[in-house]
Specification:
Blueprint lengths: L5 H21 L4 H19 L14 H16 L1 H9 L2 H6 L4 H13 L16 H16 L5 H23 L25 H23 L7
Helix pairs in contact: 1-6, 1-9, 3-4, 3-9, 6-7, 7-8, 8-9
Length: 229
């Protein structure tokens, strides 16, 4: 990743903050949620700048510290009464439009591929079709919540398909990181997400996208006949 243009980092940082902004709106401006996100972001920034994740020889991989805590936190939200109550207060419209950030994320990944930061399989020229989620998100938002012409089944189906696209790229990305568990891209491994600021992708952006889908599905499936505006 030598000679990586500054604009790549700038676009990614702005995309991360846009993701947090949109999720903050979905929480109805929850100060607690925003505070937790920025504390986590600050912690991971320190770890990334310190070079903590650069050591890929450890077992278990240090990479797990990027993705493990957010996953555990999401699981806790779905298992605890207070967590479930929080999920049910999230604004479905904002959870939907949040997925537009997947467009700039995919552009950044393509740039990183050009500078040997990630393998081609992580881009839309490889196995990553996640950009389709970002492209269709404003369409779903407009016809589902502005025109209210989409029924619950279509909204559920869209969330499931986009969730599948997310899981696909996350799995390929995780198996391309240079650890003992690497299965793909040995010639050009996924090293960018072990460096600041791109560590924010697995630590913050992806978990918020995942949570947005899961929370939306929870609301849609629990109230299948009710329009959620």
């Amino acid at each position: 990743m030598e000679n990586l243009p500054v604009y790549v980092k700038v676009v990614f940082v702005l995309t991360t903050f846009l993701t947090i902004f949109l999720f903050h709106r979905a929480t109805r401006q929850s100060t607690l949620a925003l505070g937790i996100l920025f504390i986590w972001l600050g912690f991971q920034s320190f770890m990334g700048v310190s070079g903590f994740y650069a050591n890929t020889e450890t077992v278990p991989p240090r990479f797990l510290l990027l993705i493990g805590p957010p996953l555990l936190f999401i699981i806790a939200l779905f298992l605890t009464p207070s967590g479930k109550a929080f999920l049910d207060t999230l604004n479905l419209k904002n959870l939907t439009i949040l997925h537009t950030i997947r467009i700039p994320v995919e552009i950044v990944l393509f740039w990183l591929f050009l500078y040997r930061g990630v393998p081609e399989l992580m881009t839309f020229e490889g196995r990553n079709f996640d950009i389709l989620s970002g492209i269709t998100a404003p369409i779903i938002y407009y016809f589902g919540f502005v025109k209210t012409q989409l029924n619950t089944k279509i909204l559920v189906l869209w969330n499931l398909i986009c969730l599948g696209l997310l899981i696909n790229i996350v799995a390929n990305a995780a198996l391309s990181v240079p650890t003992a568990f690497q299965k793909f891209a040995f010639d050009q491994p996924n090293v960018a997400i072990l460096q600041f600021p791109f560590i924010w992708l697995p630590a913050c952006v992806v978990p918020l996208v995942l949570l947005s889908h899961l929370a939306a599905l929870r609301q849609l499936l629990s109230r299948p006949e009710k329009k959620i505006i």
